[in-house]
C-alpha cells in the first residue's frame, strides 16, 4: 500500500470514529467519545473548564455531569484534516458547526490519536475552543455546553 493510500485509510478511520462519537454526543450521550478516548493517557481542554483535565476518570466525571444535556438538530464537520505523524500517531483538526435551537455554535477542534496495542485508534489529547471567542457575548449565567 502506498503512503498516500495508507494515510487516506487512517484518515477515513479517524474521521469515522469522530463522526460516530459526535452523532451520539448531540443526542445527549457523551459515551461515544469515552469509547474512543485512551483510558491510560488522556488530556482534555474544554472552554467551560478553567484548566486542562488530565486522566480518563476526570474527563469521564465531567461527561457524566453533562450527560443528557447536549443536543443538536444537526451538525457539520468542515475542513477536516488528518495528519499522519507515524504509523501509530495522527492528529485530527476541523471546524464544527452545531445547530442548537435558534443558536449556531461554531467550534474548533483538534485531537491527537494513537494506535494502541489492540490496533485501535484512541484519542490521547483533545482541545475544544470557540471560533473567534472575542465575537461571542457570554451571559454570566448562560450554559455554554
Task: Please characterize this protein's 3D structure.
The chain has 145 residues and is of the alpha+beta class. It has a single domain (3-135), classed as Nuclear Transport Factor 2, Chain: A (Roll). 28% of the residues lie in helices and 37% in strands. It contains three helices and six strands. It has helices at residues 3-25, 31-36, 56-66; strands at residues 43-45, 53-54, 74-86, 89-100, 103-115, 121-130. Strand 1 (43-45) and strand 2 form a beta hairpin. The longest helix is centred in the first third of the chain and has 23 residues, at 3-25. It is globular and about 50 Å long. The model has no long low-confidence stretch (mean pLDDT 91).
Q: Which regions are unreliable across 5 or more consecutive residues at pLDDT < 50?
A: none
Radius of gyration (CA) equals 16 Å
**N→C terminal distance:** 42 Å
Largest sheet: 6 strands, mixed
The CATH level-2 architecture is identified as Roll
Regarding quaternary structure, what we see is: single chain
Order of helices and strands: HHEEHEEEE
Structural class: alpha+beta
Widest sheet: strand ordering: 2-1-6-5-4-3
Share of residues in helices: 25-40%
% residues in beta strands:
35-45%
How many structural domains can be distinguished in the coordinates? 1
State the shape.
Answer: globular
Find the CATH topology: Nuclear Transport Factor 2, Chain: A
For this structure, what is the CATH class?
Alpha Beta
Amino acid at each position: 500500500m502506498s503512503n498516500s493510500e495508507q494515510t487516506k485509510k487512517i484518515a477515513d478511520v479517524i474521521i469515522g470514529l469522530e463522526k460516530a462519537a459526535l452523532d451520539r454526543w448531540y443526542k445527549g450521550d457523551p459515551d461515544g467519545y469515552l469509547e474512543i478516548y485512551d483510558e491510560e493517557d488522556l488530556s482534555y481542554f474544554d472552554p467551560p473548564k478553567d484548566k486542562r483535565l488530565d486522566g480518563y476518570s476526570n474527563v469521564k466525571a465531567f461527561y457524566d455531569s453533562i450527560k443528557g444535556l447536549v443536543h443538536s438538530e444537526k451538525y457539520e464537520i468542515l475542513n477536516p484534516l488528518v495528519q499522519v505523524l507515524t504509523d501509530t500517531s495522527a492528529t485530527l483538526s476541523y471546524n464544527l458547526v452545531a445547530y442548537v435551537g435558534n443558536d449556531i455554535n461554531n467550534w474548533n477542534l483538534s485531537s491527537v490519536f494513537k494506535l494502541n496495542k489492540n490496533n485501535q485508534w484512541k484519542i490521547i489529547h483533545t482541545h475544544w475552543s470557540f471560533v473567534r471567542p472575542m465575537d461571542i457575548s457570554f451571559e454570566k449565567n448562560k450554559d455554554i455546553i
